[in-house]
Amino acid sequence: MSLLEVDDVVVQFGGVTAVDHASFVAEAGRVTGLIGPNGAGKTTCFNVISGLQKPNRGRVVFDGRPVTRLSVPRRSRRGMGRTFQRLEAFGSLSVRENVRVARDIHGGFAGLLRPTAADVDGLLERVGIAAYADERADSIPTGTARLLELARCLACDPQLLLLDEPSSGLDETETDAFGHLLAELAAEGRGVLMVEHDMDLVMSVCDEIHVLDFGKVIASGAPGAIRSNPDVQRAYLGYSDADDQELVR
Ligand SMILES: Nc1ncnc2c1ncn2[C@@H]1O[C@H](COP(=O)(O)OP(=O)(O)OP(=O)(O)O)[C@@H](O)[C@H]1O
């Protein structure tokens, strides 16, 4: 049984079919990539999975149970965590306070009663931003803010992380460290599903990749197979004679 199953999902916005009978899975203990050209439907899929967008048809199954009708907070309590392309931290709070607030909101009343596994400073250390703990969130570099989003997500101890463009704004060293962290999180048994445009990162860290184009899943497989798939090359490059081409960002 897969941790996450997206089953025959369709989303229409007026005359636009943003997601077109898409089916794919993300497994616990693995990093899964969801890639595709601009406008392919990746963010809309994330919105359906996390509960922000109701699909016209199809269903989402998480940890063996359908969640298609559940609200965003209930999915979060079941173990889904998400980061957004747009940064969501509270600008006037410090980096440490932002993570604490995320943990407290998620924990709610239950959080007051039982100790949480997520130690705030430990999380900042883990994602590599402990040096910024006392800085205001609106004063830190974009890459650091991106890592703060990840720390806020991890503060809820999710079983599945949905990461939307997590490496944008990270420099090369930060991206390398981030790739290692993703592998570690998967090794702990969490599932990671990532929308990402940095193909070097996707190809090096993902165990499996699903490719969307015009809302349809056109390929699923390991990085090597995806890289050499002619349909994928065509979708990215816009022409078919792609024998000597590689996937480009
Ligand atoms: N709320 C909306 N109303 C109307 N059309 C929308 C809406 N959201 C998305 N779309 C359209 O649905 C399609 C898929 O968009 P989506 O943002 O899911 O793609 P994406 O793969 O995430 O793109 P990008 O890589 O550029 O972020 C696009 O044609 C987009 O214009």
From TrEMBL:
Keywords: ATP-binding, Nucleotide-binding, Transport. InterPro entries: AAA+_ATPase, ABC_AA/LPS_Transport, ABC_transporter-like_ATP-bd, BCA_ABC_TP_C, P-loop_NTPase. It comes from the Bacteria. GO terms for molecular function: ATP binding. This is ABC transporter ATP-binding protein. PROSITE patterns: ABC_TRANSPORTER_2. The keyword Nucleotide-binding applies. Residues 4-239 form the ABC transporter domain. It comes from Nocardioides conyzicola. Gene3D superfamilies: P-loop containing nucleotide triphosphate hydrolases. The keyword Lipoprotein does not apply.
